[in-house]
Amino acid sequence: MPAAKTPKPRKSDRAPSSPHGTLAWLAVVQAYNLCDAVMTARLAAIGLRVGEHEVLATIATTPGITQQALAARCFVAKSGVSMLLTQMEAKGWVRRDSDGADARIRRLTLTEDGMAMAQKCLAVQAELVTAMVAPATEDELATVADTMNRVSVVLEALRSGKA
Questions:
Q1: Class (C level, CATH) for 25-159
Q2: Residue range 146-157: average pLDDT?
Q3: Residue 50, exposed/middle/buried by CB under 10 A (0-12, 13-18, 19+)?
Q4: In the chain, fewer beta carbons within 10 Å around the N or the C end?
Q5: What phi-psi label fits residue 92: left (phi over 0), alpha (psi between -120 and 50 degrees) or beta?
Q6: Which helix (H) or strand (E) is 66 found in, with range?
Q7: pLDDT by residue (tens digit) across 41-70?
C-alpha cells in the first residue's frame, strides 16, 4: 500500500511572515543571552551573582549613591536591591551610612573587601566587553549604540503606555 501524501499546507494554514527587523531582533536577543550566560559563569567562578556584580560595580563607580538611586540604575527590582544590600552588608562588602543633611537617607559605600570584590567583577566585565566589541569598528559600535538608544526610547514609551 503506497504511503499517504502529506497535503500541502494552504496559505491560510501558514504562520504570517516575520515583520521587518525580526532577524536583527533575534540577533540582539541571541547576543544578550550569550553575554548573560558567559557573565554568569565568569562571575560564579569568583563567587558572585550578576545582581551582586551590578550593585558592586554601581557603588564602586558612584560612591555615596542612595539605595533608591541604586535601584533605579540597576537591572534588579527595588525589593531585590534591598535584599542584596542586606546580604552584602552581612558579607562585609557594603556600608549604609546616614546622610548628614537628611537622616532618612542612607548613602552606600563599599568596604575594603567590597572594593576588592568590585575590582574583580569589573575586570570580568571589562574582559567580556573587550571580547564582544573586538570584531566591530568604532563606527559600527557608534551605530549600534545610537540604534539601541533610539530603540530604548520607543520601548520605554511602550512600557509606560505613552505609545
A1: mainly alpha
A2: 94
A3: middle
A4: N
A5: left
A6: strand 65-66
A7: 999 999 999 999 999 999 999 999 998 899
Q: Are 109 and 64 in contact (CB under 8 A)?
A: yes
Q: Higher-confidence residue: 76 or 12?
A: 76
N-to-C CA span, the chain: 59
Residue type, 136: A
Residue 125 CA to its chain's centroid (Å):
11
Residue type, 127: E
Q: What is the pLDDT of residue 154?
A: 95
- DSSP single-letter state for residue 114: H
Q: In angstroms, rounded to a whole number, what is the distance separating the alpha carbons of residues 126 and 142?
A: 18
For 131-148, how does the pLDDT look when each residue is reduced to its tens digit (9 = 90+)? 999 999 999 999 999 999
C-alpha cell at 128: 567580556
Could you give phi then psi for residue 66, rounded to 5 degrees? -85, 160
Predicted TM-score (pTM) of the model is 0.79
Domain residue extents for the chain: 25-159
Q: Quote the DSSP letter at residue 21.
A: T
Residue 82 CB-density burial (10 A; 0-12 exposed, 13-18 middle, 19+ buried): middle
Which pLDDT score is estimated for 99? Answer: 86
**b/e map 59-73, b = 16+ CB within 10 Å:** bbeeeebbbeebbeb
